[in-house]
Amino acid sequence: MSDLTSKLKTVWIQLSGHSYPIYIGIDIVPILAEELIRLGWKGKIGIITDTHVARYYLSLCEEQVKKVSPQGYVVHVLPPGEEYKTLQQIEEICTTMLQGGLDRSSGIVALGGGVVGDVAGYFSASYMRGIPFIQVPTTIVSQVDASIGGKTGVNHPLGKNILGAFHQPHSVIIDLNLLATLPERIYREGFSEIIKHGIIADEGLFEYCRDNAELLIQKDLNCLLYPVIRSCEIKADIVMKDEKEQNIRAYLNYGHTFGHAFEAVTQYKTFLHGEAVALGMITAAEVAVQMGFVSEDVPQRHREVLAKYGLPIHWSVLPVDEVMQSMKRDKKAKAGKLRFILPRRIGEVSIDSNVPEDFVRQALEKIKSPSN
Ligand SMILES: NC(=O)c1ccc[n+]([C@@H]2O[C@H](COP(=O)([O-])OP(=O)(O)OC[C@H]3O[C@@H](n4cnc5c(N)ncnc54)[C@H](O)[C@@H]3O)[C@@H](O)[C@H]2O)c1
Ligand SMILES: [Zn+2]
Fold first, then answer.
1. Are residues 205 and 333 in the same domain?
2. What are the pLDDT digits (tens) for 46-80?
3. 5: three-class secondary structure by DSSP
4. Three-class SS of residue 153?
5. 180, 195, 214: which is the final residue of a domain?
6. CA-CA distance, 218 to 200, in Å (whole number)?
7. Is the beta carbon of 318 within 6 A of some atom in ligand 1?
8. Would residue 256 show up in a list of annotated catalytic residues for this protein?
9. Which end of the chain is more exposed for a tag (fewer CB within 10 A), N or C?
10. Are residues 122 and 135 in the same domain?
11. Looking at the CA of 114, which ligand is closest?
12. Are 279 and 271 in contact, with CB atoms under 8 Å apart?
């Protein structure tokens, strides 16, 4: 391999029957050409991206594919945003790829945020009963979360991620330089997932995010390497232990039962996902206080670090009843019981399915008060 390898960190995901590398570094998109050679795809390559990302990075990606693809390549550019994470887009991609001549020996490069990754991944899982794909994620959320672990899918009008498949990528290329063009609010919300990884598995990562917030907000890429690498290691480790979410993979949903409900009751208009998850994590920590698992300093430490990234730490008009109803409808409520991931300390969580409804209500009430 080239001298690029000296500039990157590789984290391997080893699963029964399939292992793949996650490359993390700065200016490492050129490794895509080497990866395509290593993987040895014989057929045409399909590149899937969205209009925002295409404007900045499609040519960079095409340059690499052109170098090594004997059969050429086909590009499909999605309109940007969650509302296009639909079956209709899968059908449209299918038309482009069939007309462009992709066959069973082809592979896909997904260049974009989590929406592109989920759609391109689901397309790859289904096209001719499954072809391989590479993830080149371009948002923090997709770099530390969505591109790793093989969950792919699209939304249905009645629910998010309702149609999906587990389809692991063959390679993930995380180039921090691609974050340069990310709008500030979308960049900052990504820290919610990084901080989440700290709370569930690594107090050191949590403290790093607290102590280096200024540099990280300014997109200091050298400072960002460590939290992105640690996040990928933590997610990879959990996925390797529980690929299909039978048990501990659920830890990654920390703050998400509340977060999804906050998103749903506001019709996905008030909060970005990471913002809702920030509030959700504080709520979960308050539930843990009610349960007697932790003292008040744990939710307080959540607030301290999340606030540094401009993430919300209270919501004065939180509609408690609506949130309760929404959570009871959530697909993660098993047999009608509310199930939560709760902290035992910063760096460790557990799954608890016997949380009294009163405790949940009291925790939600606490989020309404700005004095906390
Ligand atoms: N599969 C999983 O395990 C998993 C995990 C977490 C989230 N997700 C999914 O990921 C999606 C959210 O992903 P996201 O937060 O990356 O959002 P996104 O893909 O919608 O990207 C956010 C916005 O930023 C733009 N953008 C992306 N990269 C850019 C860049 N480098 N420069 C400028 N603009 C850029 C996009 O065009 C879009 O407008 C949701 O659909 C969620 O369900 C999946
Ligand atoms: Zn999330």
1. yes
2. 999 999 999 999 999 999 999 998 889 999 999 99
3. helix
4. strand
5. 180
6. 25
7. no
8. yes
9. N
10. yes
11. 1
12. yes
